[in-house]
Amino acid sequence: MKFGKIFKKQMVPEWVEAYVDYNCLKRVLKEIRSHKHSKLTRAASRVSQQAEALHRSFSGLSFHPRHSERAGDIEDQVIKVDTVQEEGSRKLYETKFLKKSEEGGEFEESFFKKLDENLNKVNKFYRDKVKEVIEEAALLDKQMDALIALRVKMQKPDIDNLNLEKHPSDKVVVDTSDNTMRTQGTVNTDMVHGIERTNIPEEEASHIVADIVPVSHTGGNEEEGSIGDKQDLREILERVKMNDVLESPITTLKGVFGDSNEPISKKGLKKGEEQLRLVFSEFYQKLRRLKEYSFMNLLAFSKIMKKYEKIASRNASRNYMKIVDNSLIGSSDEVNRLLERVEVTFVKHFSSGNRREGMKCLRPKVKRERHRVTFFSGFFSGCSIALVIAVVFKIESRKIMEKNYGTEYMANIIPLYSLFGFIILHMLMYSANIYFWKRYRVNYTFIFGFKQGTELGDREVFLVSTGLAVLAFVCFLLNLQLDMDWRMKHHKTLPEVIPLCLATIVLFILFCPFNIIYRSSRFFFIRSLFHCICAPLYEVTLPDFFLGDHLTSQIQAIRSFELFICYYGLGEYLQRQNKCHSHGVYNAFYFVVAVIPYWLRFLQCIRRLCEEKESVHGYNALKYMLTIIAVIVRTAYELKKGRTWMILALISSGVATGMNTFWDIVIDWGLLRKHSKNPYLRDKLLVPHKSVYFAAMVVNVILRVAWMQLVLEFNLKSLHKIAVTSIISCLEIIRRGIWSFFRLENEHLNNVGKYRAFKSVPHPFHYYDDDDVDKDD
Fold first, then answer.
1. Is residue 364 part of a domain?
2. Where is the EXS domain (predicted)?
3. Are 737 and 430 in contact (CB under 8 A)?
């Protein structure tokens, strides 16, 4: 594989713009090569002409051309790199090409100019990121300070005057001037966050907590610190409290109606440890990506300079790479030191000293593509197609639709199985989305917050959807066979139970606690669904409101689930008739079920409005409120009919459709920007063909308008009402799938613009410094 493809594959998607623009440099080299080629062609023709003339004039004389100077002798004269000092001790590199006067020298000068721009860009980005991780490491050092103190307190609550000291492995930020550990058993001082703490001998502390051992971090003596600066355990604990994160119903209610500032218990400490474990894991991934960023850019500079030497026949690589190696990205070692310290700290405090287990958590295995997934996906796809053909032949061979009871029979059975059809179609659209997200390098795993190694790929989702399709079609075919079999006339209730058995199997697989059939992904879905149902008591994350938006496209599936409850709960299946609409309770819930998804999204918007104080969430809540009104009026018209209800349904649906369409295209997709580089689109596009975006906008408008088909009720004699409803519901699911791709593309581009490649995990502890105490006073 060529280096350019490897380089692109190894990039952090959100940092793409911060990498060396390798393709741009290659294009400049192609210009140099084409110019060199034309130059050599002209020179060869001139030499040929001169040789012929000399041969005619000086026949018998030999011609010995003068050897040019070797390239190695003039290597130092090809380029000269100057360093410009900026404010904040930042270095900028400027390369002067000394062969500019030669023919084609302007191309090579342009090459080195772009090379300097890339080197300065990479160094600036790396400097900023290193500064960020050092500051974050200092905060993690504080968190470890609080964690160790709390552990000591929980193990020995009666000892309040024990002075806290820390081993270097307890610290993430370590003084680079002292990398050696002193002998144990001495009394020394340890400076942590400006607070000087007295270390105690090992024999006095080992029986309290095994993690605490005496060490000198600053190399000073006990007498160097004043007594007033030394902090005992009680004073440290008085400065520590749990961060108030309103992420669950209990903490949300406490934060709204009462004071959540309670003493830290063992349960709270355990929760804090788990949260800090996640913080360390995410911080470690950031350090690893930063190290890979440095390595890949250095490799890119080396590769491009070798290409330049080969094309231009100039030995400038050694001089320039010496500058690159001495720059910040080539000489800085802070990231490597932080990686080592994080590993030591994590293994010691979060994996009981077991390095293998600790490194498994810090470096989860990358998910491998399995051939059996591909095989079974193809196998189930073929089975599904064969079963569809079998169902069609079964209906045609028995001439079910031509019989008197055929229409009524299909009207009873189709709504029961359509639930699984909607789910299968939704999963197929999600599988297609994952495929295109991966193709266009949309970092969907980061956006959704999937744990590395547990995320499902497009093949896995396709496998699950085709497997469910096979199961549903088998049950449907079995249902038809049993209903048409004369031997089953005395057991007519048996075929009616098959859809219920299918639904039971699907729910059992979904909630199965065993580690089978992608348990982590199933539990992730259940957790997000529970957060949606409990809105606004849970903190709203992207997976939660993304799932909420998808639920709004599954109104008909939710109504089918309600039909299951009515059909089997009220005993309708015994009479083999669907008369659920004759029940007042069912009609009431028919209203409620249609409104619930939009109401949940409305509550999520209100929660985000209260937390983030951004007006866009208020407008989004207004959009869902208008949709709720439209759904209520439409449902009332569907049940009661009448011209007045139809007019109200048309008006409310038209307003809701217009606002939803505008929000989809302008807000969610970020398109229709007048002053963008791409007219009526946006500045950055991942799909190279602009026509795709215009087609998506047109399709979105058409499918949004199709939503009003249920209100207009065109006279379609060839289609049953249930079939029309099912088709429109399928079109809405397809529209939602298209919306999902561009919605995540826009979210990814926002992350790229902010270089946001890692999720922010809140720290569990808040540590009050002296300045904070003074401010409070």
1. no
2. 581-775
3. yes
Boundary residue ending a domain (469, 485, 517): 517
Same domain, 236 and 319: yes
Report yes or no: 189 and 225 within 8 Å, Cβ to Cβ: yes
Tell me, yes or no, whether 506 and 399 share the same domain: yes
Count CB neighbours of 417 within 10 A: 17
Q: Which three-class secondary structure state does DSSP give residue 388?
A: helix
The CA dihedral of 372, 375, 376, 382, to the nearest 10 degrees, is 180
What one-character-per-residue DSSP string does 602-632 give? HHHHHHHHHHH--HHHHHHHHHHHHHHHHHH
Assess whether pLDDT exceeds 50 at residue 200: no
Q: Which two tokens stand for residue 652?
A: 């409310």
Element (H, E) at 238: helix 233-238
Residue 177 lies inside a defined structural domain of this protein: no
Q: How many whole angstroms from its chain centre is CA 327? A: 32
Judging by beta carbons within 10 Å of its beta carbon (0-12, 13-18, 19+), is residue 117 exposed, middle or buried?
middle
Are 524 and 509 within one domain?
A: no
Q: How far apart are the C-alpha atoms of 231 and 706, rounded to whole Å?
A: 70
Write 571-576 long-range contacts (CB < 8 A, 24+): 573/493, 573/496, 573/497, 573/500, 574/493, 574/496, 576/412, 576/492, 576/496
Shared domain check, 322 and 418:
no
Contact 231, 195 (CB under 8 A): yes
Q: Tokens for 766, please give them.
A: 């808040």
Token pair belonging to 551: 């639920």
Tell me the per-residue pLDDT of 275-305, one tens digit each, with 9 for 90 and over. Answer: 899 999 999 999 999 999 999 999 999 999 9
Nearest CA to 709 among 739, 738, 736, 729? Answer: 729
Instruction: Report which of 390, 475, 375, 479 is spatially closest to residue 424, judged by C-alpha positions.
Output: 475
* Reduced 3-state DSSP string for 159-203: CCCCECCCCHHHCCCCCCCCCCCCCCCCCCEEEECCEEEECCCHH
User: Are residues 548 and 463 part of one domain?
Assistant: no
φ and ψ at 210, to 5 degrees? -70, -20
What pLDDT was estimated at residue 49? Answer: 59
Tens digit of each residue's pLDDT (9 = 90 or more) over 726-752 = 888 999 999 999 999 999 999 999 998
Calculate the alpha carbon distances from 756 to 18, 356, 443 in Å.
12, 30, 11
Residue 598 CA, distance from chain mean position: 25
| 511 and 570 share one domain | no
On whether residue 310 sits in a domain, the answer given is yes
Q: 544 with 569, same domain?
A: yes
Q: At which of 575, 598, 613 does a domain end?
A: 613
Instruction: Evaluate whether 432 touches 737 at the Cβ level (below 8 Å).
Output: yes
Backbone angles phi, psi at 241, to 5 degrees: -145, 160
Domain ranges, residue 532: 519-613
Residue 490 is predicted with a pLDDT of 58
Instruction: Please tell me the distance from the alpha carbon of residue 217 to that of residue 179, in angstroms, as a whole number.
Output: 9
**Residue 121 in this model has a pLDDT that exceeds 90:** yes
**How many domains does the chain divide into?**
4
What average pLDDT does the segment 421-446 reach?
95
In a domain, 168, yes or no: no
Mean pLDDT of 53-80: 49
| Angle at which helices 555-569 and 721-753 cross, to 10° | 130
Q: Report the pLDDT averaged over residues 677-682.
A: 91
pLDDT tens digits, residue range 374-419? 999 999 999 999 999 999 888 888 777 776 666 777 777 888 899 9
